[in-house]
Amino acid sequence: MGMMASYGDAAVIRATFDEASSALGRDLWQLVNEGPMDALNQTVNTQPLMLTAGVAVYRLWQEKGGPVPALVAGHSLGEYSALVAAGVLQLKDAVPLVELRARAMQEAVPASEGAMAAILGLDAAAVIEACAESAQGQVVEAVNFNEPKQTVIAGHKAAVERAAELAKAKGAKRAVMLPVSAPFHCSLMRPAAEKLRVRLSELPLAVPQIPVLNNVDVARPTDPEIIRAALVRQAAAPVRWVEVMQAMQAAGVTHVIECGPGKVLSGLAKRCAEGLIGMAMADSAGLEAALAIAKEG
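Predicted structure:
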């Protein structure tokens, strides 16, 4: 709780949360500061909160004179923050949209039937092979390619457990079951994708003011209709983060700066693309460090 406290009393942070709370019809600022923790951990709250936090920190970056990025991207839910930063989606539309996304994902698979696991220390190709050999008529798929030696799998609980054991037999250092409420990004999420399709068809999307590298195709479409279709597919398709980072590097990006109260993605950057430097604006100190580097360059 209080994950935004490390940014001090920046007015733009509070204003962004007020805007999001107004769009959602409940007080996200109170939730983020006071909890309770079990409410914070519910995906219908977590997704709107993380979206808002990312946008709030990006707006603080802008207010402090941070330069416009060459490219933006987001991991899974973070793609929605990237689209708001790029002007494709308005925050007032994005917050209820991701709440719907969270609820639809939660409803797609009964809580006890789905699972996810992180496979550490094994090449992605071997993880994909373990999934294929473990399915036995059920669904288990590689869904988050986070770094070359870290791939997350998702699907039916029993199939995920079988694949995790087989991955260890194939040489994985660890296979860690994840405390999640749904098997995100696997084909079991197709019902959620259909609900997203309906809602997205009702929302205005604009041409990006900053190129947005998407998860599903590792592409940067400018046509709002192509962006809309890619977001629908993203819900039930893998997050190709290794390729996203490599595409950023290929485009000439040297520094990847993470927006929001977290440091996971900045740590992954250099492991995805050698020489890429990750920085995290996880608090005021991180924000100032990132600004200093950006203004030097």
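Summary: The radius of gyration is 19 Å.
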